[in-house]
Amino acid sequence: MGVIVGFKAGAKDKTSSKKIDDSSTPKTLNIPTAGISYYPSYAAGDFALAQQRFHYASGLEKAKTREDRRQAAKDREAYGGLVHLDLSDPELVLEIDQIDAFVLRVTGHPHAWLAAWSYREYVRCIVTSGDLNAQEYVDQAYAAAISVG
């Protein structure tokens, strides 16, 4: 059994100044939670920090502080294969498995915790997006999250 989340009727699309067409926007989404792993609250912070470290170490984002630059250099040395990206490739596709592998190595947390956290974060974004395919995306994310166990 899932939680039902409603969209606000007549809400503006966050990516434009247009109003969302109420006739085609789903009013509710079924957000399944059965089989989604529990994770402790401290793990959420660990996952967010580790993802940020990936972005800095891979060069996707420029580290802003001296401490972050030092950590990025250490991460490149320790996890070079996991953070290596060819940023000159205009067709670069970032694989979530690459980020997940880094996050799991850095945090040492179980994969099921990461899958549960990722699912919840993804759903949080999708619910507010107003995307017409939101239910399809939620269902796909759910299937991926429970497949980890």
- Lateral arrangement of strands in the main beta sheet: 1-2
Tally of discrete structural domains: 2
What is the count of β-strands?
2
**Average pLDDT number:** 83
Shape: globular
- N- to C-terminal separation? 18 Å
N-to-C SSE series? EEHHHHHH
The structure class reads mainly alpha
Helix tally? 6
Overall description:
By secondary structure, this protein is mainly alpha-helical. The chain folds into two domains: 3-38 and 113-148, no CATH class; 41-108. The protein has helices at residues 41-58, 66-78, 80-83, 96-107, 111-129, 134-148; strands at residues 3-6, 28-31. A two-stranded antiparallel sheet has the order 1-2. α1 crosses α4. The longest helix is centred in the last third of the chain and has 19 residues, at 111-129.
List the helices and strands and how they pair.
Layout: E1 3-6, E2 28-31, H1 41-58, H2 66-78, H3 80-83, H4 96-107, H5 111-129, H6 134-148
Antiparallel strand pairs: 1-2
Characteristic terms for this protein:
single chain, 149 residues, mainly alpha, two-stranded antiparallel sheet, 6 helices, disordered N terminus
Summarize the structure.
This protein is mainly α and 149 residues long. It has 6 helices and 2 strands, in the order E-E-H-H-H-H-H-H.
